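User: Show me a protein chain along with its predicted structure.
Assistant: Here is one chain, sequence first, then structure tokens.
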Amino acid sequence: MTIRTSLLTSSLAILAALGSLSTSSAPSSRSDDGAAVRAQTQLHQMDWLGGSWSGDMWGGRFSAYYTTSEGGKIISHSKLMRAEEVAFYEFEVFELREEHVYLQPFPGGQMATGFQLKSHDSKARKAVFENPDKDYPTRIVYERVGEEQLVITLSDPHGGSDKVERFDLKRDVMGKK
């Protein structure tokens, strides 16, 4: 199977999975409307993620693209290029679920365990997602450092591992490397 066929198959699987995820960012009538509105506000305030980012890591060139929250979801896709081949790719969906913002990753196109937003500072442009019940990483931090840098840090404060991975990404101009 070619990489293009694999990516297409994975994309179709993700679209099918997205259909089974939350389909609305509107607060549920059964929920605490205040909590749902706060979560929706937090998601919209994460538009600072939006854009195209890249950096050198894992022995190659890592690139990521994030949409804005328009429509109630932030969707991203990323890939790692090594020796002119895709060595890794992932899709992510940031959305509202049960009055919280969730990050749902799809590494290699396969749905993985999600993360809940634990803290968000819109002025500092920093969002911390955690899931203490999963394997590494148990925490993912997204942070804008200035206008041209996005730092993503993977760590394991809940699992006892000292492993930390830091992605230092610079803003890309679309169509340029």
